[in-house]
Amino acid sequence: MSDSTTFVGALTPKFYVALTGTSSLISGLILIFEWWYFRKYGTSFIEQVSLAHLGPWLGGGASASDGDESETGAGAAGAGAGAGPGAGPGAGAGGAPPGPAPAECKVWRNPMSLLRGAEYGRLWTVARRAPLTYYDMNLSAQEHQAWFGVGEGEGEGEGDEAEACMARAWREREPGARLAAARAALAARPDCAPALLLLAEEDAPTVLEAERVLRRAWRAGEAAWRARGAGAGAGAGLGAGAAGAARRHACVLAHVKRRLAMCARRLGRLRDAARMFRELARDAPPALHALHTHENLIEVLLEQRAYADVQAVVARYEECASTRSACSVYTTALLRARAAAVAVPPAKQHFELAALEAMRRAVEFNPHVPAYLLELRALALPPEHVVRRGDSEALAYAFCHLQHWRHVDGALRLLALAVQSGERGRRGLRAGRAARCAACGACGDRELLGGGGAGGASGGGAAGLWARGGRRAALAAACVCACALLAALAARCPRAAALHPAALLRLLTAV
Q: Quick one: where's region Disordered (predicted)?
């Protein structure tokens, strides 16, 4: 005890100045490293290490795993090795999640995601704002590696150079490097379907040009798929490498057809789009079932005003819990509202009550959607991934379905009434469950929407911080380091100050 008292009493002000400067210097270096790590891998290093490694040791394993699973689900589990240490965990778009996380807390691929070059790129061209966060693009890169990456025993042959270029392209995060690798693969093999798919997604300036490149990719992918003998009965005698290559070619072909159908939808050819989406919903490989192409089909049928076909599609998928989403529940409510709109007066009240009940269930499933449909919050470009029952899913749904709600007379009025009644009657177990789901998906929404989210998901996490002002954060870190360096120099080399004669006299008198 006496030693500690002596030590504390012997400390001089210069020690405290040096301690403050050193701690500020270390904090600034950590902040700079965090900024660099997030720019490169799309996630926070400290948050990732604390959740994945320190949480179980400190007794927070359950909560940490729950929070970790709430941010995953769209990336592939086997793609993390190629995606860098910051790729984050992924549950596999086509496989089962690693833990018992609830479906509403998972991150899913947005079936209505736009083309990066022809659609997302317009926001950067006009407003100089990044349409997607690094976390969102990181999840997409993991999925691309899982779907299109070459496994062991594959790619041996004349197209090996093209496969190596595409493997590098799927790992890259920078658009320029991805496009350069895709062009190199196309130069090595002119009929490389994955390279054509990537160029159509990210390089084509218009939807029409993207469709032209995708048609070329379709011909190349279909030829490669048939050459591999990827039919239903041809896979029995294939080795593991050949079977993996056949699955990869089937995934490429399905993705090309899906993007072609979306281009046809954008260009107004609704019948062609509906036909291709029906084929995909029926014949898509199991790895792509999590893409939920039936939601694309629902949107096209709503645009065609084919409400009977929409009802049939919704009834086919509503029994499956894994396909339950904002699109399915709000489409059911929209169909009930249309039935109430066309009903004759004696039965109109009954149909309106049924529509109100369906809308209450929809609002309970995702309470963020009405704010966008009622235009209480501004719309933005939807992300490539969404959190089930979260703000990102609400934004993605309203972005594509707001016009369909406007076409049905009285639908928005009934939705407003359902929201008001739900706010008055929300209590007990349902309110607690909704609060838990909202807290579960809030972190994923912040990472996906970043600072460019439409009002509700800006800030709070590492993604929001760097998305709002990465340059300002780096400048602040540099200022902190400079101040710490000046403080350390001042403590090491203090300026000699002359003592006043009166003070010196008092000091000598006291002695």
A: 62-102
